[in-house]
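Journal club side-thread
Mid-discussion, someone asked how the predicted structure for our own chain would compare to the paper's figures. Pasting it here so we can look after the session.
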Amino acid sequence: MPVRQIRSEIAPVDSDESLVDIVEAARILSVSVSTLYGWIWQRRIAFVKMGRAVRFEQRVLREFIQRSRVEPRNFLKS
């Protein structure tokens, strides 16, 4: 059975539980891979470590984006 077929049977590509590598996670977060490695070292973002490989759950990336959101101020003119 091809690897792609096995992966698709384990977790759908768009699933909250599917894992992405550091390059894809950096692209999703619009930061450099180096910045993302820094956040890992600082434990600013949750990650999954499998041997030497670092992976991120898509759900965790979305939650990280939501937590990082800065709402605009309400400036009311009188």
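Post-session note: The chain is about 45% helix and 15% strand.
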